[in-house]
Specification:
This protein is mainly α. The chain folds into two domains: 119 residues, no CATH class; 31 residues, no CATH class. The protein contains nine helices and no strands. Helix 1 packs across helix 3 and helix 8 packs antiparallel against helix 9. The longest helix has 24 residues. The radius of gyration is 16 Å and the shape is globular. The protein starts with a helix and ends with a helix.
Length: 163
């Protein structure tokens, strides 16, 4: 799945990375790879910290709302900006601008692809395994406080999003 995230970053990195003079041309591919890797790792960390409600709110919105208001996205932007700054010598202001312009677009497309039953690039079960360490039923069980995964309340809401 990390390869698909990197591909999404690459498809959307035109103005933010490729045409951006803050990142020298010889580092474009490495910067794209770094953004995708940091995005993947950041989402995994957020899921492991059990910030599931905030992650779910991203998927529930379908990417249609302002993702930067989501605390998970804000943390991901900061993580990516810090990495770009340290690995590629980009100023903190330029790195923040790159991350702020690129990540919401990439996440929006990631969410749309995950929610689209006709798009096989991102499978929801694969996403849950990579980020949550289980399947959708396990995640629903965590959300509802049930071990059966049957869920109620938020678990039902999450389950309905993907049916």
């Amino acid at each position: 799945m990390i390869d698909q995230l990197i591909k999404l970053v690459q498809e959307n990195a035109g103005d933010a990375i490729v045409k951006n003079k803050a990142i020298p041309d010889q580092h474009n591919a490495a910067a794209i790879n770094e953004v995708g890797t940091q995005l993947f790792n950041g989402l995994q960390e957020q899921a492991k910290q059990e910030n599931l409600q905030q992650i779910i709110s991203m998927f529930k919105s379908g990417g249609a709302t302002n993702l930067t208001s989501n605390p998970v996205v804000s943390q991901l932007i900061n993580k990516v900006a810090a990495s770009l700054g340290s690995k590629f010598g980009v100023s903190s202001q330029a790195a923040q601008q790159i991350a702020t312009s690129l990540l919401p677009t990439v996440l929006s497309k990631f969410i749309s692809k995950t929610n689209d039953p006709n798009d096989n690039d991102f499978d929801l079960q694969d996403v849950m395994k990579n980020f949550g360490g289980g399947n959708v039923s396990d995640l629903l069980g965590k959300l509802s406080g049930s071990s059966s995964g049957a869920g109620g309340g938020l678990g039902d809401t999450f389950g309905k999003m993907f049916n």
